[in-house]
Write a structure and sequence with these properties.
alpha/beta; eight-stranded mixed β-sheet; Peptidase_M20; Bact_exopeptidase_dim_dom; para-aminobenzoyl-glutamate hydrolase activity; Amidohydrolase
């Protein structure tokens, strides 16, 4: 692997880290990707060619408009913004001109609403590429995922004469909150894909360690819920009010009591609750952000249905108006043994990399599951690869990935897989 590829990848990762963007607002990140693809002559598609608006969840139109204006101020051309049709998400397409399988690689682009550490020992701070956007940070490694995917596209383009078939590199928006993969899957962009590999940095693994996940990914549904009551004076006319705060608090406690399910593990969390107007006012407003998860789709659906039943009951009991919106969903991981074996073979072919036992720990949720599920519906296969790093925990202000050490591992493993399944006859 040429040092030029590695150096470009590291520089790209740091540029993206410096200007992080939340889900559905990744216009500057997309422009970085598109600019490199244009420079190399690699074709790509975006907008509604890769995002089906009917399946979009958790997208705030005001935030998108603000992001577009911010992107313009940072040099993203109006002509590029128009081509996005207001939707982030881009797919590079590399044709070899020879018959063979269609192989796709998925990488996500979005950051998190976290203020990055300014501790001098924190690598991005120490080396001068920490987030310049207060309260927004790449605290899960998606900047590295994007840089790896972009460099992979460059390598595939440069070496397409040595390969066969077609490649697609999916730059997916809005993985956080599991919002972006379903609309990408439903756009038709993976309908011809034979092999799809998703990947993630970190997890439970260290530098130089790589594994393939063979289950343990939880299905999940994310909800935003609002309660609207009626204000009244808390002292002289409390009976005239309808207390949205009390309704939200009651709902929070009742949600914890959703029955467990005999088919497997489940989770329920109210992560954020904001309510009330003042000390002596019957609260008219409350808003809640919460989620459920299940280790099968059926368990997750059971949890989701019970959330809706509880909110409906609280609405009547407290005489408030409740609005419940699904703002994100992930499915379980479809396990494809043949694809897993090929990914493991590819990993073994990379010198200096340690192939770890398959990972099946109870974990979080990942919307790459929708893309893999979509590929398997027409007979394709998918797998999910994890490559290690030294981190203090995902979604923390001091999250680090050691890009010079760990991103090359991912790149080499993905290149190895491409060479394995798309070898020129």
């Amino acid at each position: 692997m040429s040092d030029t590829y590695i150096q470009d990848m590291i520089e790209t990762r740091r540029a993206i880290h410096h200007r992080p963007e939340l889900g559905w607002t990744e216009f500057e990140t997309m422009w970085i990707v598109a600019s490199h693809l244009d420079k190399w002559g690699i074709p790509y598609v975006m907008g509604t060619k890769v995002i089906n608006p009917e399946y979009v969840m958790g997208r705030d139109e005001t935030e998108v408009k603000d992001a577009i204006e911010r992107a313009k101020k940072h040099g993203v051309p109006e002509s590029f913004i128009e081509k996005t049709e207001g939707y982030t998400g881009l797919v590079a397409i590399i044709e070899t001109g020879r018959p063979g399988p269609v192989t796709a690689f998925r990488c996500d682009m979005d950051a998190l609403p976290i203020r990055e550490s300014d501790d001098p020992s924190h690598l991005p701070t120490k080396l001068g590429f920490a987030s310049e956007r207060t309260g927004v940070m790449h605290a899960c490694g998606h900047d590295g995922h994007t840089a790896v995917g972009l460099t992979l596209a460059h390598w595939l383009w440069d070496h397409k004469d040595e390969l066969c078939g077609k490649f697609k590199v999916l730059f997916q928006p809005a993985e956080e909150g599991v919002r972006g993969a379903r609309p990408m899957a439903e756009s038709g962009i993976v309908d011809d894909v034979d092999w799809l590999v998703g990947s993630h940095v970190g997890g439970n693994f260290h530098s130089g360690e790589v594994t393939v996940q063979d289950g343990g990914v939880l299905a999940s549904t994310k909800f935003d819920i609002t309660f609207t009551g009626l204000q009244a004076h808390a002292g002289n006319a409390p009976e005239k009010g309808h207390n949205a705060l009390a309704a939200a608090a009651a709902a929070t406690m009742m949600l914890q009591g959703i029955p467990r399910h005999s088919e497997g593990d489940s989770r329920v969390t109210v992560g954020k609750l904001v309510a009330g107007e003042g000390r002596n006012i019957i609260a008219a407003h409350a808003s809640m952000e919460m989620e459920v998860r299940g280790n099968t789709q059926n368990v997750n659906d059971f949890m989701s249905e019970n959330v809706e039943y509880i909110i409906e009951g609280v609405e009547k009991a407290y005489q408030v108006k409740a609005n419940i919106e699904r703002v994100g969903e992930a499915s379980t991981l479809v396990v494809c043994p043949e694809c897993i074996e090929k990914v493991e073979e590819a990993i073994r072919n990379v010198p200096g990399v340690k192939l770890m036992p398959r990972f099946h720990g109870a974990s979080g949720s990942e919307d790459c599951t929708w893309l893999i599920r979509k590929v398997t519906e027409h007979g394709g296969q998918g797998a999910y690869l994890i490559y290690g790093c030294e981190h203090k925990g995902h979604h923390r202000p001091d999250f680090e990935i050691q890009d010079e050490t760990n991103l090359p591992v991912a790149l080499k493993c993905l290149v190895s897989f491409a060479k394995l399944v798309n070898a020129k006859a």
